[in-house]
Write a structure and sequence with these properties.
479 residues; alpha/beta; Rossmann fold; 7-stranded parallel sheet; 33% helix; DNA-binding
DNA sequence: AAAAAAG
């Protein structure tokens, strides 16, 4: 299990019977650590500061007790058109996902919810906001829009959730959030979830929370042993060919590929489609319709490859995703952890492969420093740049068995017959030109003594890359 | 330096 559970049972947490029934329907019996810690805190009615990454089960950690609290007061006593709970989250997809969770766990309760975000027609949202509403999940921009136009009245909010607060600050939402906060009643319960605690998060928490309870669970990067991580050294110009090769060679049934740029995501998706691999790109320049469609198809398994920017790095919960690829390494080492956290979720194992150009070696070092381990560099058998329009047929014919969704054994990425040559970065990179990295290893290239070279100098001179420029977009979106 | 989010 990647998501740790506890020895507790959900029926010991004081949640009402309809909620327990919905939890059981969803197949859960045991809360994760963040749920076990956060649920009693939220039920107590106090403010909460929670340190939790995505993938720890934190969404249910606040959704479940909030449903309980709201359902204690009958809807008939509550004014219509006044959401009683507001959940703010950085991306549209995350907002949609959280609202789905609200609906899932609230299905036996007479509570109503909706989700509000930009990129789509506002009129259906306006119509929905006129009807009774208990829980409103939103991204800040569109919500503020509606609030300014008096489409929604936030004066009845009893519970506020700021999810992924650090990310919202990174994305320059602080001004919007402050404006929204000013519309809320003073008397309310506040829950703040953040993966990291920068000074800015602390400042936000200080102004927002009153005598908060504090819960924290281990960062997932130290716990993600079940995600098998490897690196392929490859020139940037050969990455797209290698990507097609890997997908076909390993017969990956489903893979989420991260690129550094939106343009890069488009180009890779086009290349894969050209190579008869079903693929779609998702990023912030796509229409919301295209984004929603691509994600839905990927989630239901009808889309083989989803090529994404870091829009999909955090929080997206894709059931039983076996394989993640970093087509380029992320600029911020923490994002690597978030990206590979899309696999190995909910009790399944996963594999994460990173395609690394020598230009990215510093990023790789930063990542290895963060996760406190060296990621093995694995040779790709049988791939030669510019010489692999089609991969060789796999030795054993593939059975047309469907997608093995529940896979217990080794992740798909590493079939037993793939010889894994683990060479140290020094051995590979200084000994041969990049163009030679994919030719099958000849005997004199074997350097078994170097296989486990532990690079002591992993952090010489590169202090952690603070995301120094990301937060102060003081101009905001000029309004 | 890129991406996300209002249009």
């Amino acid at each position: 299990m990647t998501i740790e559970t506890t020895s507790l049972n959900f029926n010991e947490l004081g949640l009402s019977e309809p909620i327990q029934r919905a939890i059981a329907d969803a197949g859960y019996t045991t809360p994760t650590p963040i749920q076990a810690k956060a649920i009693p805190q939220v039920l107590s009615g106090g403010d909460l500061l929670a340190g939790a990454q995505t993938g720890t089960g934190k969404t249910a950690g606040f959704t479940l007790p909030i449903l309980h609290l709201l359902s204690q007061k009958p809807l008939s006593e509550v004014a219509k058109g006044h959401p009683r709970c507001l959940m703010l989250t950085p991306t549209r997809e995350l907002a949609a996902q959280i609202e789905e969770s609200v609906k899932t766990y609230g299905k036996y309760l007479p509570l109503t919810s909706t989700v509000i975000f930009g990129g789509v027609n506002a009129n259906p949202q306006i119509a929905r906001l006129k009807k009774p509403l208990d829980i409103l999940v939103a991204t800040p921009g569109r919500l503020l829009d509606h609030a300014n136009q008096k489409n929604v009245d936030l004066s009845g909010v009893e519970i506020l959730v700021l999810d992924e607060a650090d990310r919202m600050l990174d994305m320059g939402f602080i001004r919007d959030i402050k404006k929204i906060l000013a519309m809320l009643p003073k008397q309310r319960q506040n829950l703040l979830f953040s993966a990291t605690f920068s000074d800015e998060i602390k400042a936000l928490a200080d102004g927002l929370l009153h005598n908060p309870g504090f819960v924290e669970v281990a960062r997932r990067n130290t716990a993600s042993e079940l995600v098998e991580q490897t690196v392929h050294m490859v020139a940037q110009s050969h990455k797209r060919d290698l990507m097609s090769y890997l997908i076909k060679h390993h017969d990956w049934k489903q893979v989420l590929v991260f690129t550094r740029t939106k343009h890069g995501a488009n180009r890779l998706a086009e290349k894969l489609i050209k190579d008869d691999i079903q693929a779609a790109a998702i990023h912030g320049n796509k229409s919301q319709g295209a984004r929603t469609k691509a994600l839905a198809q990927f989630k239901d398994g009808s889309m083989r490859v989803l090529v994404a920017t870091d829009i999909a790095a955090r929080g997206l919960d894709i059931d039983q995703l076996p394989q993640v690829v970093n087509f380029e390494l992320p600029n911020v080492p923490e994002d690597y952890v978030h990206r590979i956290g899309r696999t190995g979720r909910a009790g399944s194992s996963g594999a994460a492969v990173s395609l690394v150009d020598r230009e990215e070696l510093k990023l790789l070092k930063d990542i290895e420093k963060l996760i406190k381990r060296e990621i093995p560099k694995v040779h790709v058998e049988g791939f030669t740049p510019n010489a692999n329009p089609e991969p060789e047929a796999p030795r054993a014919p593939r059975q047309p068995h469907g997608r093995p969704r529940k896979q217990q054994g080794k992740p798909q990425g590493q079939p037993q017959n793939a010889p894994s040559k683990i060479l140290s970065e020094a051995a590979r990179h200084q000994a041969m030109p990049q163009s030679a990295l994919f030719t099958p290893p000849s005997p004199n290239r074997h350097q078994p003594n170097r296989q486990n070279v532990n690079r002591q100098n992993a952090n010489n001179g590169n202090a952690s890359r603070g995301n120094t420029n990301s937060t102060h977009r003081s101009g905001g979106r000029g309004r």
